[in-house]
Design a protein that fits this description.
The protein is α+β, with helices and mostly antiparallel strands and 256 residues long. The protein has one domain. It is 27% helix and 26% strand. The chain is built from seven helices and 13 strands. The strands form five sheets. Strands 1-9-8 form a three-stranded antiparallel β-sheet, with helices on one face. It is globular and about 60 Å long. Pfam families: SapC. InterPro entries: SapC (IPR010836). This is SapC protein.
Length: 256
């Protein structure tokens, strides 16, 4: 069933309940998840962080790679998550926080399988937010604040021209090969060549640590290769390389 996010309404959704469990089946076809700066350190220890560009809006985003192919989430075994950290943008579901007029509003996917008669009530009989909903709203507020800081971080990285296109060359067990493109990462040489005043500014803004977290996370591509061993066609080898400017073509997301 198609996702249908609508503004959460205490009248329309007064009887709604949401199941609380550790199932992440809704993310089984998610190969990319938006990442926020406040979780970079945790994510970088488990999964790769890369930049992508939306070719329509020309805006850059930081995402974490959950798989090497579209529709593939290597961190899921059945409904269970394989790893110590789940991205906040996965944990928020079936809720979301989005612009609603001149402010941010809480949204819910009315078609979510997590909406259940046996779940946690969202509202009390008096029409007030339940303890469960209150905790989810606080989580969503933290997520929204982190996303706004992430946008400032990305804008600064782009302004300083620190990004380079990268490409992953995969060889599978059956001998087939493919290139995963459409991604960018931090160019360490460009970073080291920044004037001291710009480095100091990055440090004071809390962005320098985030930059190094992204750079270090690239090593977690090996984790994806390892996780692919449980698929029908495991990855036998992987080669990461920079893409020359004249060869780079803008992509909306990692693809073959």
């Amino acid at each position: 069933m198609a996702i249908n996010f609508v503004p959460l309404d205490k009248e329309k959704h007064k009887d709604l309940k949401v199941a609380v469990n550790t199932s992440f089946s809704f993310a089984k076809n998610t190969h990319l998840a938006a990442a926020t700066i406040r979780e970079f350190a945790q994510l970088a220890a488990t999964m790769p962080l890369v930049f992508i560009e939306d070719t329509t809006s020309k805006r850059h985003h930081v995402v974490t790679m959950l798989g090497m192919e579209q529709g593939q989430n290597l961190f899921l075994t059945g409904d269970s998550w394989r790893g110590p950290h789940v991205p906040m943008n996965i944990l928020r579901y079936p809720f979301d926080v989005r612009p609603d007029g001149d402010k941010l509003g809480v949204y819910i996917d009315e078609n979510s399988d997590l909406i259940s008669d046996e779940g946690q009530a969202l509202f009390t009989e008096a029409g007030e937010a339940s303890e469960f909903l209150d905790s989810r709203q606080k989580f969503l507020a933290d997520l929204a604040n982190s996303e706004m800081l992430t946008q400032r971080f990305v804008a600064k990285v782009v302004e300083l021209d620190l990004l380079d296109q990268i490409q992953i060359r995969l060889t599978y067990k059956d001998g087939k090969q493919r290139n995963v493109t459409g991604m960018m990462s931090i160019n360490e040489k460009k970073l080291l060549e920044l004037p001291e005043d710009q480095v100091l500014e990055l440090h004071k803004q809390g962005f320098l640590g985030a930059i190094y977290a992204v750079m270090m996370s690239v090593g977690q591509l090996n984790r994806l290769v390892e996780l692919s061993n449980d698929t029908e066609n495991p990855i036998r080898s992987m080669q990461l390389s920079a893409v020359k400017a004249e060869e780079a073509a803008p992509e909306a997301a990692p693809n073959a």
